[in-house]
Amino acid sequence: MAFRKFASWCVVAAALMLLGMGVAQARRTDNGAKAFLDSIYEAYVGSSAGPAKGVVLDSAKAVRRYFSPGLASLIIEDNPALSQPGEAFVTGSDPFVGRGSWEISNLAVDVKESGPVKAIGSVSFTNFGLPEKVEVELLKVGNDWRISEIKWGSLTLRSLYRKKWRAALQINSIVRQ
């Protein structure tokens, strides 16, 4: 009888330990969205004319590494060759900072989860002495976080692509007439 009680206690203790490890793993996963954004934006601290070259998006693979499948498709379809870094973006600037050049300091990244597979990142920094803020919508794809939207004030990356595609459709319809 004592052995059964001891064995039952061991099973309960093991279950509690596994549950605790699961909670610890969930906490690490929760921090994954912030770690993902930190890894991106740390590459921008400093001057683009100096060592802070940002994130190079020079291939479809690189685009898919950072963006959700839907947004990556828009970017890749716009420039399938992706031969020049930054050329894939209709903005004419770096999508992560919304500028073609930067001198970034005072970087702060905050991430709030809005569900098990969604999060919102708020990235603030000083650029050429002026405060700026970028909002980044994140989506969990498998075990990894990806960017599904970037907002610079009232502009969004997706809206720029939508405007470009609408303009292209209008040109095509005029040419066909």
General description of the model:
The chain has 177 residues and is of the alpha+beta class. It has a single domain, classed as Nuclear Transport Factor 2, Chain: A, CATH 3.10.450. Helix content is 44%, strand content 26%. It has a six-stranded antiparallel β-sheet. The longest helix has 40 residues, at 2-41. The model is unreliable at 18-29 and 171-176 (pLDDT under 50).
Portion of residues in beta strands equals: 25-35%
Largest sheet: 6 strands, antiparallel
CATH architectural grouping: Roll
CATH topology: Nuclear Transport Factor 2, Chain: A
Q: What is the alpha-carbon Rg in Å?
A: 22 Å
Spell the H/E element sequence.
Answer: HEHHEEEEEH
Give the tally of structural domains: 1
Structural class: alpha+beta
Q: Uncertain regions: pLDDT < 50 for 5+ in a row? A: 18-29, 171-176
- Quickly count the helices: 4
The average pLDDT score comes to: 78
Structural topology:
Elements: H1 2-41, E1 46-47, H2 60-66, H3 69-78, E2 103-113, E3 118-127, E4 130-141, E5 144-152, E6 155-156, H4 157-176
Antiparallel strand pairs: 1-2, 2-3, 3-4, 4-5, 5-6
Helix pairs in contact: 2-3
Summarize the structure.
The chain has 177 residues and is α+β, with helices and mostly antiparallel strands.
List keywords for this structure.
26% strand; Nuclear Transport Factor 2, Chain: A; 177 residues; single chain; 6-stranded antiparallel β-sheet; alpha+beta
